[in-house]
Each structure stands twice: as C-alpha cells, then as structure tokens.
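Example with several molecule types.
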Amino acid sequence: MTSNLLSIVLFTPLAGLLVLLFIPRENRTLIKWWANLTAAAGFLASLPLLFRFDRSAGGYQFVEKVEWIPSLGVSYFIGVDGISLLLVMLTTAMGMIAIFYSWDAIQTREKEYYAMFLLQQTGMIGVFVSLDFLLFYIFWELVLVPMYFIIGVWGGPRKLYAAIKFFLYTLAGGVLMLLGILTLYFQHAAQYGRYTFEITELMKLNLPLGLQQWVFWAFFLGFAIKVPMFPFHTWLPDAHTEAPTAGSVILAAVLLKMGTYGFIRFSLPLLPRASSDKTIVTALIVLSLIGILYGALVSLMQQDWKKLVAYSSVSHLGFCTLGIFALNEAGLAGSVIQQINHGISTGMLFLIVGVIYERRHTRLIADYGGLAHVMPNYAIVFAFAMLSSAGLPLLNGFVGEFTILQGAFQANRWWAAWAVPGVVLGAAYLLWLYQRTMLGEVTNEKNRGLPDLNWREWAVFVPLMLWALSIGVYPKPYFEILEKPVAEIVHRVHQTATSVAQAPASGLEAISR
Amino acid sequence: MSQYYTATDHFVLLPALLLALFGCATLLFDFLVFPDPKQRRWLLIFLVLGEVFAGVAFWRQQQFLLEHGGSLAAFRGALVIDHYALFFHWLFLAATLITGLISYRYLEVRDEHHGEYYGLLLIAQTGMFFLASGTELVTLFVGLETMAVTFYILVGFLRADKRSNEAALKYLILGSVSTGFLVYGFSVLYGISGSTRLGDIAAAVAARDAWDPVLVLALATAGAGLLFKISAAPFHMWAPDAYEGAPTMITGYLATASKAASFALLVRLFAGPLGPARESWEPLLAAAAVLSMTVGNLAAVTQTNTKRLLAYSSISHAGYILLGLIAGSPTGLKGVLVYLLVYTFMTLGAFLVLTSLARQGIAGDDINDLRGMMKRAPGHALWMLVFMVSLAGIPPTAGFIGKFYIFWALIETGHYVLAVTGAVYVVVAIYYYFRIVKAIFVEPEEAEAGPLTVSLGTRVGLAVTGVLTLVAGVYPEPFLRLAQMSITR
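Resulting structure tokens for the full complex:
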C-alpha cells in the first residue's frame, strides 16, 4: 500500500464525502461524527508521509503516475518534495481542526457544509501534490466552488457579495494562468514533439526571455490574486471577514498558500529566466514590500476585529513573496516556513475571533475591553497567538520572518530595510488590538459573565499552540526537510538564468498525428 | 436499382428515409389509428422506434466506414457519409430522443399534447441529416429549410400562449430574411463555379484571390445566413424571444440540435471549400465571435428570466465555438466538435431541469422561481449545479474540456488576443451562471412548498445528460478519440 500512500491522503476526504451523501440530513450527529472521522483519518493517513519522507534525497517522493487523458498528454502524476510535504501536512491538520471547530458553530444545513469542506480538502491537497500542470489546474479550480458555498451559505451579513467576489477574482486569475499553461504546453510540443503537462518535462523547455516574461505575467495573475499580493488583495478582506470561522481559518491557513506555492513550484522552475529577470524581480519585491507595509498600516486602522486579522494576512503574505523573490536559499526556506507559521498563527487568530463572535455576535473592537477579567484562559490563548503572529523569539513567527529577512538582506539590504518596519507595525497592531479588547476595565456590561473556553475550544487551541512552540524552539527538522528542494530550485533559477543553452531543433514536425 | 438510385445511394440515404417515414407515419397515425388522446404514448413509442431503426442504419454506416475507411459519397456527390457527418448524426439522435422523452408530461400539463409533435421532431431531425451529410448546395438548402420550418411550428406549439406565438412569428420572419441571405450567397457561389457541388466550388474558390469582391460577397451573405442559424451576434436578435416563448424542451432542442446542425454545415463549408479564402472570412468570423461573446455574456448578466438568460448564454457559446473554426487547426476543429458535444449534454440537461419544474406547476421561467430548490428537489438542484458549473467551463466538468480545446487551438495558431478575450468572458459568465446557483442553493425560499416529484423520464434524461457531463469532464478520452476520428478524412 506504500506506493499509493499519497493517493490515499488525497482521496480520503472525497471518499468520506461520498459516504456522507448517503447519510440522511436529519441525522445531524452522525453527519458531524462522520465528517470529523474522515478529517481525522485524512490527517492520520498523511502522518506516514512525514515519517517515510527521505530528507536526504532530492526530487519528488511518493510519486505515482498513471496515464489519464492520453490524447492530451495529461497524466495523473502526483508526488511531493519537502515544500509540498509541509503544505500537505498543514492542509490535513488545519482541515481536521477547522472541521472539529465547526461542531457547534454550524447549526444549519450541516450535511452540505461538511460535504463542501471535505471536497475542498481534496482540492487543496490535490493542488499541493500535482506534478502535472493540468491536474494542478483542475484541483486549483475545484477549490473555488466549495469555498463559494462555504462563504455564501454560512457566512456573515455580506456573504453573497463576498462569495461571488472571491469566485470572480480567483477565476479571473485562473483562466489567464490557463492560457500561460497552454503556451508552455504548445511550446514544449514545438520543441520536443510531444504534448505533455508534466512539470518535469516542461522544465526542459528552453524559451526566449520575452516569451517567458509573457507567461510569467499570466502565471503571476493567477498566483498573485490567490496570495493575494498588492494590488490584487481587495477580495481578501471581504471573503475572510464574511466567511464562517472555519472557512476563514482554511482560507487563511491553506488557500492563500496555493498562490505562494504556485510561484515556488511553477513560476521559478519553469520560467527561471523571467523569474530572475531584474525588472520582474524588482516589480515583485516592490509589490511585496508595499503589501507588507500597506497591510500592516491598514490593520492598524481597522474597527473590525476580524477584518484586522484579515488585513494582517496581506502583510504576512508579503513577507512570504519577499522571501520567494529574494531567490536564495534562506529567503525561500524562510518563506515556506513562514507560510506554515501564518497558517498556524492566523488560523489561531481567526479561531479566537470566532470564539468571541459566537458569544457576543459582534466583531467591533469598540464593543470589547477588559475581557481578560472575564475570560482569563481566553486571554492567555490570545496572547500566545498574538505573540506567535507578531514574531516573538522562541515562537514560530520569529523563525520565518527572521530567515526571510536574512534572505532579503543577502539579496539586497534595502529590501530588508524596508521590510523591517513591517515587523514593527505587525507587533503594533496586534498589541494595540490586545490592549483594546483584553486589558483595562470591562467597559461593556454585556461582556460580563461570558463563559471562558470550553473543552472543545481548548482541544482546538492546544495542538496549535504546541505546534507553534515546537517550530519556534526547534525549527531544525523543517529546515532539513526544505534544504534539498529549496537548493534545487535556487540552483535551477541561477544556473539557467546565466547559461544560454542551445535550443533544440523544432519538434513540431515530429508530432505524429 | 437504377443508375439514379444505386445501392450505395440507398445505403447512405436509408437513415433519412427511415426518419422521414416514421415522421410522416406519426402524423398519419395520430388521427387515423390513435384518435384517443390517451393513446398518445404510442406515438412516443413510435418516435423511439424510429430512432432505433435510424440508429441501426447509422451503426451499419459506421461499421462500413471503420472497415473501408474514408467516406462514402452518394447521389453523384450530393450526399456523403463520413465520420464527421456520423458524429453529428449521433448527436442529433441523442438530442431528439431526450427531447421527445421529456416533452410528454410537459405537453400534457400545458394542455397542448398533440401527436404531430413527435412527427415534427423526426422531420426536423431529417432536415439535420441533410445539413450534416449534404455536399451540394440545393440539398443543403432543402435540409436547412426542412429543419427551420419544423422549428417555426415547434416554437409556436403552445397555441394558447401569446409569448409562444410571438416567438414563432419573430423566428419565422427573421429566419426567412436570413434564409434569403443564405440563398443569395449560395447563388453567387454557383455563379463563380458553375456547379452546386462543394467539390467544384472548392476548385473555383481556390482559383480566385481571397479578396475577390464576388467571393467576398458570397462569403459574407452565406456567412450571415449561417450565423443567424447558430444565433451568433449580430444576427442573434431572434434568439432571446424565441427561446423564451418556445416550450421549454423545444428551447433546449433549438439551442443544441439546431445549432449543432448549422455548425455542421458552417464548418464543412468554411473549413472545406471556402478554406482557401480564409484570409477574407477570418476577420468577419472573428468579429462575429467576439461580438457574440460580448453581447451574450454581458446581456445575460441582467436577465431575470432563466430561459432568456440561457438564450444569451447560448449566444456566447456560439462565439466560443466559432473561435475553434477561426483557429482552423486540427485542434480547433476537434475543439468545435468536442465543444458541441459537451454543450449539447449540458444545455439539454439544464433545460430538462427547467422542463421538469415547469410541469410541476412552478413556472420555472423566473430565476426567483428556483429559490429553495435545494430543499425541495435536491437531486434536481445538484444536477443543475453540475450543468451550470459545466456551462461556465470550470473543471472537472465537460464544459472545461470544450473551452480547453478552444484556448489551446487559439494559442497554437497565435490568436492570443482572441484567447485572452475568451478567457476574460469566462469570468463574466461565472457571474450569471452562479446567479442561478445562488437562487437554488443560497437564497431563502419565499413560500414554503412541498417536495417535488420526479418522473421516470426526467430521471433517465437527467442521469444521461448529467453523467455524460461529468464523465466527459473527468475522463474525456473516448470523446476526444471520437472527435479525432471525425476530423480525420
């Protein structure tokens, strides 16, 4: 069964979904139990990936490849390297936590809710494990429909607006990315006489810089909207704010990472010359820096607790893209670790908003104050999450941000210099938020007598806190897992960028039809 | 068998003969043998029987072609059977069968259940036969008119309904004008070649310059007539009204089979004999395609009537399919076929859901009528979701495969601007398809109503169209092979 391990991880949620469809909708308890069992099974199934993963070996592991649509050269080709392994683990873990948290939070149409969640799990895992570009694209789009429903049906007051905005934005990037994919597909056939979407094959392509740049911008639209990078971020505050808590957690923790992952897996290795082109790198770094500072400044201004957390994502993801386009080992490794960290920390922050929202049904910061007196445990958890997000040493956020800044400094000290205020501002808006909501006297009578965390909430937070702490104290395993794949990508970008390889003879004639 | 009607002629013509025979027999039997309205089901069975016979004849033709390869010409080059034609014949057969099966209860509820309905469906399909198989202008024209005239009647079949009458009249008048254009174009083609056979026309066209004024005149007029039939802008005016007024299943039939038949002729004409003049017709068709996508998608956004919305969406789909012809490469032509195939399934499926709702006493014409459908008919609702996602072109549904081919062909042939335009309109399309999805799944029901019942015919129809929409999305290989075979000459 070892050889099919990755497929099992990929399709466990889908299999669970198919069974779920046959549970009558009135039997709510069974539906919830089944969804939780499926999510837990998905997580457990993904654990062996971690243990059996060979850190010293490069390339892709747990590879499976079956021909799927021979007429188009599409294959079911999946596998993971260190980068995707970590993101798959993040997906299965956060998925389990989000589904568990939904137990009480979702009271209507449970069957559809959990069905959508499970479908989305398969879509997200699929994005991270696909080594065939079309397969990747299919999973990429597959994620949109369930998230549309999760926001649109179970979301807040402006849910319909937020849901369709999310859908339209990401789809717009997606279809333009498809044109880029098709260009590579066609060029590969022209050079090698074979139609294929396998990224290992597409990497052999030798394209002139001009064409690479066009394709890069097509990919950029797809990925940058998903990340989201400034100025494509405007869907994010709406979607994150209106989504139900578990939806926000998955959106922030996993969905955004699809964009950064896309840059790492596809843009850099497939388009090395464009990715190291000075204009493009500068443009992306500038957008990242704007994202970092702008996201932080806008967070400072927010009246709405959840929106503040949403905007903080723009800032944090700016660090991730900054790390990627520093184009060195430290930047890239830091970026991946920061993606995991952001998943944990921002996931926690959204859960924290969710906890209080369920008790008080308001998200306005002004409605709170002095909650630490009423809910001491809650205040402790919040403090932990806040410090982890703000990048306190010994917690996870520090490791990621520090490594990214190190990479940025190596590449260009001014980049690092401009990013540092983002760290400071990050601490500022979080601490200020904490001060306004938790500290001082209880200003609002309605906040008195609120119950503290219940066991289910503890059960959600404790693993996340432990995870955050473990990364902060002992990040070495993460760096070890990332070392090989990151080195491969960086090597590829720099090597191909400098050498002018011979373009192979035209292969179009060789395509036999 | 004489020299005017050889065994080959008979073999090629047989399916059309059978269809026409069963069609006419249905008309006669309606008042001679089964005068009692309760016996109408026999006429439906007659339709099925006619399709079975025609299907056997098609199957034998297919076997013949598989064994001997190539194509089989008959009537001295007036008719031809090749894989390309057979591809369309199977499509028409499936569409007619599904339409017939689903209409039964709908017509009963609307109190317009008449036997000639089934006869007309068969006769329309006979016309389509000549459109896909004809290689001679007069044959093609007669086929086109046979199909068109039956459709004028079918669109106005709800005699007591004002909108249906209006739709039929508009369709008739505008359709006649377009036919005039088409005949004019045909006559010019005859003028420059001295023959009505496509083979001779091809030689005459190839001998002329692409910008030869007479040739451009022929292209423009014949093109306009055909663009009308496929409801491409700027000749789309009739579509929203006709689609809205027609009986719902006929709307589906009009949007799929009639459009596919016209595309069969359009592609055979423009990719075949008119191919050498590509330089002059490409800009014309490209303009029509872009305009269709623009008008179709933008107008659909504001529609509140589901049938009108789908009418505009079908205009935009015509634009996408045209793009495949504009690309013109083998990939593009395959794209046209694949797109038409998946488009037929998903569109018929969507109209099937609407038909089923309409006959439950819910009008189903206003988008708001669909509210709360998830609660009352979850099966319908989920299939409708599949159809909408597929129409929008989101993987892993069939619609994506169609769009994929079109984009691929455009990139392959360097039509980047058209590719980007098409891609941008996918985003617009999502918005209005998801207005339907939103009504079904998200918006609250206005009035509480009991659960819907679903008849066996609907179940079968939904299962066929829905499963094919999903299968063609998840495992399209057999369909792609079929398309590949159909364009290989």
